[in-house]
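FORM 12-B: Structure-to-Sequence Request
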């Protein structure tokens, strides 16, 4: 699909000498009034001067994660990228979205060939019922789409398909499947010529299951390092995209605190007292890949008055890790 092609095959060449903005951006929106942050993702595609894309916004209320996916349109104007809501695609909001309210982002363009930081402001329009709101937006170009909740939603909606060139893992799997198909061809041809009573001839060829290895032998992907301010943490785990059956186990410095827990839009919460050591490592282990690989989720960490949000992804060969260090 055109959107998919431009989004994942970003070139370094300029389009009519303009900065390349096609790509996936992730970060936060900050509300000027409430000072609260929301997770925000933006996928943009430019084709023949027309910029379109999708946005993904989340918020947590009463320990439940709510999300909305919108289509957007954008244009360059006075050194800014102006991104406007087009229409709501899907959401799980507890109440219907406000009618007639649209968000507009004003992202400052830079002198780089490719837009790598998408920072600026946002505002909503005022209606007869609702006041206008405003705030700041901070995002970075994200070259790893595997943990993206937005990309997961777009796959589920069949707006984009499994990327062919998104990352090395997908390439490898594609090659493996191609080789397997070539190996199976002779078997299938022989099966066609076998007598009808041979029921095995009608069994479809299926792909091999992804090999799972013990979590202690998996690679570790460190996502973030956080400086601690208290002796305990409250951890809240959510499935941050499509609820597709992802299950995880969680280890703190090797000790299992959550075992084979299914992620949903409702928080799995755990309060832990931290060991008296300088470094604490929280390992997130994928127990399966759900229906949309890899295993993805959102971890919200409360450390006293501070709150951190970490999007994570893991698979059957790689664990996700968050490192906490004590102040000294």
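FORM 12-B RESPONSE
SEQUENCE OUT:
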């Amino acid at each position: 699909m055109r959107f998919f092609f431009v989004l994942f095959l970003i070139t370094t060449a300029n389009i009519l000498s303009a900065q390349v903005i096609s790509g996936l951006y992730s970060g936060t929106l900050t509300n000027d009034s409430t000072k609260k942050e929301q997770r925000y993702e933006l996928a943009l595609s430019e084709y023949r001067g027309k910029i379109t894309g999708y946005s993904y916004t989340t918020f947590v209320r009463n320990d439940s994660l709510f999300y909305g996916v919108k289509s957007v349109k954008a244009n360059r104007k006075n050194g800014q990228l102006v991104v406007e809501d087009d229409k709501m695609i899907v959401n799980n909001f507890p109440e219907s979205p406000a009618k007639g309210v649209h968000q507009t982002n004003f992202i400052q363009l830079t002198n780089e060939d490719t837009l790598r930081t998408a920072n600026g402001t946002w505002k909503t329009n005022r209606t007869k019922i609702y006041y206008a709101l405003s705030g700041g937006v901070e995002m970075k170009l994200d070259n790893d789409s595997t943990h993206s909740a937005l990309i997961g939603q777009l796959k589920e909606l069949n707006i984009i398909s499994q990327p062919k060139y998104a990352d090395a893992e997908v390439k490898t799997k594609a090659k493996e499947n191609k080789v397997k198909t070539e190996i199976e061809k002779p078997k299938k041809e022989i099966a066609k010529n076998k007598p009808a009573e041979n029921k095995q001839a009608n069994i479809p060829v299926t792909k091999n299951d992804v090999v799972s290895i013990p979590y202690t032998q998996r690679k570790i992907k460190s996502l973030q390092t956080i400086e601690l301010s208290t002796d305990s943490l409250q951890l809240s785990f959510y499935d941050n995209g499509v609820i597709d059956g992802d299950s995880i186990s969680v280890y703190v410095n090797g000790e299992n605190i959550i075992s084979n827990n299914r992620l949903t839009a409702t928080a799995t919460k755990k309060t832990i007292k931290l060991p008296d050591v300088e470094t604490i490592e929280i390992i997130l282990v994928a127990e399966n890949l759900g229906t949309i690989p890899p295993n993805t989720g959102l971890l919200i960490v409360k450390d006293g008055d501070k709150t951190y949000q970490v999007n994570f992804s893991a698979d059957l060969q790689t664990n996700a890790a968050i490192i906490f260090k004590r102040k000294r």
